[in-house]
Amino acid sequence: MARIASATQDRRRRVLSEQMKGADTGTVSTAKPAGAQANPAYAEDALADQPRVSDFLPRRLSTLVLVISGVLLAELAVLALHLYSSSLSPWIAPERLAAIATAGPGSFANWFVISSYSVAGLLCFATYLVRRHRKDDYHGRYRIWRTASLAWLIAGLSASTGLHRILGDVLARLLPFGASGTLSSVAWLGPTAILLGPVVLRLALELRENRTALVLFTSAQLAWIFGIAVGESWITLARPADTILMACTLTGNGLLVFSLLINARRVMLQAAGEVPAPRRSRDRAAASKKAARNKREVESRTQSDPDSDTSVHTQPTDAEPTTPSKEPRARASTIEKAHEEPRTPTISRASNATESRNATDARWVGDDGHDDEYDESGRKLSKAERKRLRKQRARQQRGERR
């Protein structure tokens, strides 16, 4: 049964891929330029079904948890090798043991840091490719993801070559305070904070919509700050400073990758319509004001004309929850009022003519309901007899009224 389900899902993916092939602008165009010749070594549609950047992001929550678990295991393995490197000295040569015991260039810890910065840059670029298509981003805030991608790649270059330390030494020599060991060791913090600080703040503002990613991103910054404080001997602990610095660096880089991965996944699901995109605070405030204005209009119309049907005047917005419509109740009350309050009948010309004709006919009919053209024996009366009979009955009616 599981094989049938997996085969069905694979077929659905292929059908969806074929449907999106024509409309998707991210796929590689297979149109051959002028003068291109067919290569028999490759098929004609070799570039048609190439995966996109978003295809490498985990869609399922189980896949996301599996990726995060793998990164955590790699981080713990690197840290365990560093902690227990002294017990491995009989088995490994001293020149090879530096790759495990230290965090310098060529070590496992340095490899993890460089890899995490590279993955962070790729995740930011993948977020940029999807985020730039958001319709309510009127100020172009999506560009920060492109800048962040470049910043994390430069951070990886600096971690692999020690570029920040080299620039710190040069800057310490150029300052008028003179070259000192303390100044040269912390001189790189100023340019780093000036260049990387705005990027970090802008990314934190972008991650407000995803609280989990924001908490992880903030925790990464705190881990880095604590590691720098311990490494520069601003905070003294019982453990060796290099071990604390390595642990904080690995933790910060891991949290950075987790936050950007979770945010990139959410952005992709929002673009696919699987997760509703949250509205901006300004849009929510505008929607609330519009709902309040419509409510005031309905109340004013109800007070001015209580009998009018004001049930359909507003449209539900995303800011206010959709409530059951009161239209049937309002219509029912209007119908009840119409039945309770009798209306004055309107008399048309046709009804007036009918009543006048009936009144004229009533004058020619006696009190007993018989026509005046016949007497009691059934003989038809003449015109003079009928006239005399009418006069006699008129006198009798006048006498009864007196």
Poorly predicted regions are 22-28, 309-328, 338-350, 356-370
On the 0-100 scale, what is the average pLDDT?
75
State Rg: 45 Å
User: Helical percent range?
Assistant: 55-70%
What is the number of helical segments per DSSP (H or I, 4+ residues)? 14
Question: In sequence order, what are the helices and strands, one letter per element?
Answer: HHHHHHHHHHHHHH
Instruction: Give the overall silhouette.
Output: elongated
Distance between the termini: 107 Å
The fraction of residues in strands falls at under 5%
Total number of strands: 0
Alpha-beta content class: mainly alpha
* Major pleated sheet: none
Description:
By secondary structure, the protein is mostly helical. It has a domain at 56-272. 64% of the residues lie in helices and 0% in strands. The chain contains 14 helices and no strands. The chain has helices spanning 2-23, 61-83, 94-101, 108-131, 143-161, 163-174, 181-186, 189-206, 211-231, 241-272, 281-304, 327-340, 349-363, 383-401. It starts with a helix and ends with a helix.
Short structural summary:
This protein is an all-alpha fold and 402 residues long.
Which properties best describe this structure?
mainly alpha, 402 residues, single chain, 14 helices
Topology at a glance:
Blueprint: H1 2-23, H2 61-83, H3 94-101, H4 108-131, H5 143-161, H6 163-174, H7 181-186, H8 189-206, H9 211-231, H10 241-272, H11 281-304, H12 327-340, H13 349-363, H14 383-401
Helix pairs in contact: 2-10, 4-5, 4-10, 5-8, 9-10
